[in-house]
Amino acid sequence: MYLLKWRFDNQLKLSNGFTLIELLLVVALIATIAVMTAPFAGQLYQRVNLETTTSAVVSALHKAQSNSLEGKGNNSWGICLNGSNVRVYLGSCASPTQKEDWGVVSTMTISGLSDTTFSRLRGEPSGALSITVSNLAGSNTITANLAGGIW
Question: Could you give all domains of the chain from N- to C-terminal order, each with its CATH number?
Answer without folding.
Answer: 19-144 (3.55.40)
